[in-house]
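dude i think i finally got it to work??
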Amino acid sequence: MSSSTTEPEPSDGLKAFGAVLKSFRKHASYTQESLASEIGYSTHFLASVEQGRRLPPQRFVDQCEASLDAFGTLRVAANQLARQPGIASWFRHWAHLEQDAVSLYTFESRLVPGLLQTEAYARTLFEEREPPLTDEQIEHQLTARAERQQLLLDRPNSTYSFIVEEHVVTRPTGGAAVMREVIDRMLERTSPRNVKLQIMPQSRGVHPGLDGPIQLLETPDNRWYGYLEGQENGQFVSDPKVISTLHRRYAKLRTQALTPEDSVGLLERLRGAL
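look at this
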């Protein structure tokens, strides 16, 4: 879901919800463009929900209900999604919240964060997966990752912070050409004012992120949640005490990493050396 090599499998429930939404939209004589504009989401996001590629956040469902006068049908369909065994509970929670997050913080010590990966970089990860993925699964994973990456483009008023270990961008994942493209992508996607990237230098011997990756997000009602990812599972975090600990760690990581300006300079030098 985040920077790992796994993405949630598509489900019949998501496709069914999308079909119901599309039916109500057409019955109300809305185009995707006009409905998206009215409910405050991008046309791309609305299309992805209708195609069964994205989980609909609660605010999205509520806005569609109000605009389409769906008699509660969309809310019922969305509630059914939450009970589907095919969608992991950690992803269900996180994906709902991530789409509307006003702040999203990511510390990554293993791989380039999923939101900043290129297709070639992600394909390398998926093709080297053990046990192996089928060609169809790889293509699905690539599509799901590209869909999620729209977050940085669709939400210019949200705040994004990335802290990435230096060794992540010096490891030749996929070869020099792939890494040059990845660094270009990282520089491009973190250039807007609402997106900050910091590199944790290898010279920093010890820091609070040594226990593993961290993700934190803030909802529109200013609640904070976290997500911690392991080899074969993910942990959704809502306990305020744990969130406080993760915040303290992330805050210290920010002070120990290179500044955004110095991080850009380092990435440009690394790219030139490839």
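The longest strand covers residues 159-165.
im so relieved honestly
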